[in-house]
Amino acid sequence: MRLIGLAVILTLSLLAAPLGSEAQRAANSPRLGFLSSSSSERDKPRLTAFLKGLRELGYSEGRNIFIEQRYAGGRFEMLPELAAELVRLKVDILVVSGAPASNAARNATSIIPIVMTDVSDPVGIGLVASLPRPGGNVTGLSDFNAGVVAKRLELLKELVPSVLRVGILLNPANPSNPLQMKLTQAAAPALGVTLLPLEAKGPEDIDRAFTAMREERTGALLVFGDPMLGSNNRRIVELAAKARLPATYSRREMADAGGLMSYGANFTDLSRRAATYVDKILKGAKPAELPVEQPTRFELVINLNKSPT
Known about the structure:
There is one protein chain. The relative contact order is 0.14. The chain is 46% helix and 17% strand. The protein has a 6-stranded mixed β-sheet, with helices on both faces. By secondary structure, it is an alpha/beta fold. The protein is elongated, with a radius of gyration of 23 Å. Strand 9, helix 10 and strand 10 (261-265) form a beta-alpha-beta unit. It is built from 11 helices and 11 strands. The chain has helices at 2-28, 40-56, 79-88, 99-108, 146-159, 177-191, 204-215, 227-231, 233-242, 252-256, 267-282; strands at residues 31-36, 66-71, 93-97, 114-116, 138-140, 165-170, 194-199, 220-223, 247-249, 261-265, 298-302.
């Protein structure tokens, strides 16, 4: 009996050793915090692209890297607490989507490295000192190119040459939207159009904005990139169609939802490339010394099922 008992103990010990080793490896694996200004549904393609980028670099979620996800769903007031929660979890790196989430993360920690995936003007809103040398704990990718903002208005004018008044739907709570407004205003005189800025801080403001456009006899619409507006993309597309307003957007998802046209950075590509920053930081690189990248790939999507007027 003693021999049998000894054999059982030895067998259990042999079985337990690999499990303990695996648990130890898991405990030592890096943990990332993924913070988004938007919703999990809207950001799913971008998270998928980010995970693909990690796999290309040898990381596998749940095996040698772990990700804690938090989403604000366009409700920016939730971001400070979500960022603080990830900081309390002591994640190794914060990966952030959108300017509001990036601001919240930066305000929550000056120590944990932050990798942004798509901030329009990281210098202008004070996230980094400069693109070549960020100088703090924030680095990553910008989705901004000044020429792209003006190009959207130009493309809209080409599509609807007779338009004289263009409505601009923007979220003033998004720190990148005022910059886009300034650049769009600079391009408007040469195109012979007058702009009507319409602010929407929440979903309840979107219907009011379309009512104002109808009253002002706006002939076309330009929608700025913003997580709250993006989370309500189907509603915006429906209202634009009902008002017979030709509209252009910054992200492909709006055209996929039925919008007329979009022009902007390839956001899934930006998300995939963000994985390279995570890899470099995990290997010892300092965010302060990793230059912020600007987009190199842009997409023009025109919905052939839609008429410009």
